[in-house]
Amino acid sequence: MAEATRPAVSASDRIAQLNNIDKDVAKLLQYAGTAIKTVTNSPSESGKSQHDQAQSIEQRKSNFSAASSEYFATLSSIDVRLRRHIIALENAGILPSEMSAAELQPTQTDVKSSQSSTASNKTTITNGGLGNLDIGWLNSRNDHAEKTMEAELWGEAQKLVQRTLDNKLRLEDENDATTSDDRAMPAG
Questions:
Q1: Residue 39: strand, helix, or coil
Q2: Residue 40 pLDDT
Q3: Which among 49, 64, 172, 176 could bridge 38 via Cys, Cβ 3.0 to 4.6 Å?
Q4: Contact at 8 Å (CB) between 35 and 64?
């Protein structure tokens, strides 16, 4: 029986998927906020009649059920997609698998035994348990700080040019005023 192979997913596809997960986390927070809002007493509803409040309670129950259902469905979706990404990172050798990560975590007795016989333990934790994940490489791909700094430098440059122009105009105005005062005064 031949096992079907899945097409390789590119890094840009994975990043797009993670971006969608990030957006879903924002939705998750909105659903949680909506669910909490529906169960709290709103001050604007205190002036309503009991009949309106009874309908409002039924509406609140309905809104809470809808928001909490959306919350748990989104949470489950995020969980599944993140697990897929973790498995892909483990398969690529970027992250250690859960079993090997658990094996690599030193316990109190492991620390004592490794101190007594370090040569017998060949399993090592690389990069703080992150495997071959290069944090420097990831950080170099994020240009947010660079863009922020560039914007600040352009702002400072603009202020400097504006001050220089203002000083130049002020000096020209002073020179013009001095020249016009010299012409107005008779030589005497």
A1: helix
A2: 83
A3: 64
A4: yes
